[in-house]
Each structure stands twice: as C-alpha cells, then as structure tokens.
C-alpha cells in the first residue's frame, strides 16, 4: 500500500468487555443500554455444559426478564431464523443475546435482521443490503474461532439451495460482546482445534489479502502470533486459563482484522463445502488454509516470511522464498499436531469431478475470492479442492 496515494477505512462498533469471570457482569451491560427483556439464542451443548445456567443465574439475581431458545443448529438455517423470529416477537423482548459459537451469534444476527426488515431474509444477501437496524445484539462467545462477536457478517444456510448465504451490514455489529475465557473451558477438544484454525485462517487471509492495510495487517499478524503460541496448549488443556484467554483474544483480534482486510479463497471454498456436504466451517478451513497459502506464496514472499516468524519458525540464512515456505510448513505441522483430518475422504466425503467443478464455480461466483492476493480462476479453485479430495 502506498500511503501517499491510497486510502483506507477502519472502525469498530462493538464495546468489548474482556476478562476472566466477566460474564457475571452481563446485568450491568443490559442495564447500561436499558433493555427491559432479553432473548437468549443458544444450543443444547451450551445448556448441557452449564454455560446457560451461569447466564440465567446472573439474570435472575439481577431481576432481569429473559426468554431462552436452545435450538440453534451447527449451521444456522433460514428455517430456524424464521422460527426464532416468531418467538422473539411473541416474547416482547428488546435485545438478543447470542450465547455460544459462531452459529448462535449468527442466528442472533439473522433474527435481528428478520425482525426489523420486511420480506424474505434472502432479499438481503450480499453487502449493505439491510435497510433497517434491528434489535441490539449482545454476543457472548464460547469458542475461540469465528470472531462473529465483533464482525458485521452473518452466514446462514439456505437448505433448499444447499447454499451458505453471507449477509454483511453495519447493522449486524453487536452492540456489546462479553469475552470471558472461563466459558471456553468446557469446549470439546475437536471443536477447540477447528475453531482455533478458523481464527488462524481469518488472521492469515486478512493479513495477506489484496484489501489489507496497515491496521488490518497489524491486527492479523498479532493474531497469528498469539495462535501460533497458544492454540496447541489450549487444545491440550482447555482449563488452561492463560491459553484460553490468549485464544479468545486472538479470535476477536482476527475478527476485527477481517472486517476490513477481508477473507479470500479459503473461505470462498469452505462455504460451498459446508453448505453442500455439511463439513464444519473450521474443518474445511483447516484443510484448505495450507493449500491456499502455498498457492499465494509468490504474491508476497515477505509477508509469508513474517507469518513464518510469527508462528515461531527459524528463518535465519534463508532467502525470502524459502523463508516464506516455512509458513506453509508450520501450518501443516499445526494441523497434524491438532489431529485434524487433511482430506475429505477421511470425513467420508468422496467428491466426483462434477461436484468439484460445482464447488469451485460456486466459490468463484460468491466474489469472496476477489480479495485473494493472487488472482484465482475457477480452474485454480478446482485444483485446490483436488488437493484435499
């Protein structure tokens, strides 16, 4: 970027409340914004882990009225959004709490859109298509991965089209987010691994994107450093509060980076893989990240060298190309250490040539890959899927 010629924008719209035990201060956040009754979107896993009970006790002690929906699905669907919209309207709530991973927070965002805007939610696909701001959202993440607690995006599944639809709007920034590392301590090992890799993919893609600028680069690179240092110990022991704290912080920082720095080919491909074959978003990203990084190396050897350094690689005495290659090596080793499958066949997904072409075309048509630092064609995207087949 040439600071003498180019311009850029950056801004955050979410008030962050970070700290161990901070979730107990939820009533104070609710009082600050004068909400009378809140609607909690969460899932059965959070209910069973005790996370929901912690929230409910806090609200009951403070005398705050609330309603609860525990039917959030792993990939939030338009069907569920319509159901929760009706429940929200019936309950006369005035704010929505997304408690859980990205699915719970994205569900809360989808409901906020639906409540305040006419017609079908499909009408608002894309960027800046939502005319009215809906009820405020308070995000309480229980995973360290999606960054949805700070972003302006929601990804919802259209089951009829077998398609993951992205909606981006300034109206979708949560009003507040409570980041309490203690909520990560009951996260299953496998979910901790793939959500952590999701955060890494946000950080790497926003740092290397052709939309990156000095602020997003600084945030993305720092998130990469945090994840490189803390993801392994966090997965090894989710009760390690220091590791959990750093991973929660890294996830949110990476989210802030990709609001403006954007994501690219990794996410372009992971969306149709998830929409069509129910592959978890973080799982798809874990498989694709080293493949896409290798493809992008020549776009900026210097940046990938800095990624290698941030991940703890030794690059002294290496030229920039070989130093950059260490970044790919490091990510591959991280995926191996986390025991994440590296190909689709291990997930019992066997794609035909026609299906690979369909995934690649859908990824290309989404426009997400336009931010990729090295230009991609449909054929390039097909090749990337072939690598993880």
Walk me through the structure.
With 389 residues, this protein is α/β, with parallel strands linked by helices. The protein is 51% helix and 11% strand. It has helices at residues 26-32, 44-49, 51-61, 78-91, 102-116, 189-208, 214-236, 241-261, 265-277, 281-296, 301-310, 320-337, 353-365, 378-388; strands at residues 15-18, 37-41, 65-69, 95-100, 126-127, 136-141, 153-158, 163-168, 176-179. The longest helix is centred in the middle third of the chain and has 23 residues, at 214-236. 52% of the residues are buried.
Question: Summed up, what is this model?
Answer:
By secondary structure, this protein is an alpha/beta fold. Helix content is 51%, strand content 11%.
Helix-strand layout with pairing:
Elements: E1 15-18, H1 26-32, E2 37-41, H2 44-49, H3 51-61, E3 65-69, H4 78-91, E4 95-100, H5 102-116, E5 126-127, E6 136-141, E7 153-158, E8 163-168, E9 176-179, H6 189-208, H7 214-236, H8 241-261, H9 265-277, H10 281-296, H11 301-310, H12 320-337, H13 353-365, H14 378-388
Parallel strand pairs: 1-9, 2-3, 2-4, 4-6, 5-8, 6-9
Antiparallel strand pairs: 7-8
Please compute the radius of gyration using only Cα atoms: 20 Å
Helix content: 40-55%
User: What percent of residues are in strands?
Assistant: 5-15%
Treating each run of at least 4 consecutive H or I residues as one helix, how many helices? Answer: 14
- Largest sheet composition: 6 strands, parallel
Structural class: alpha/beta
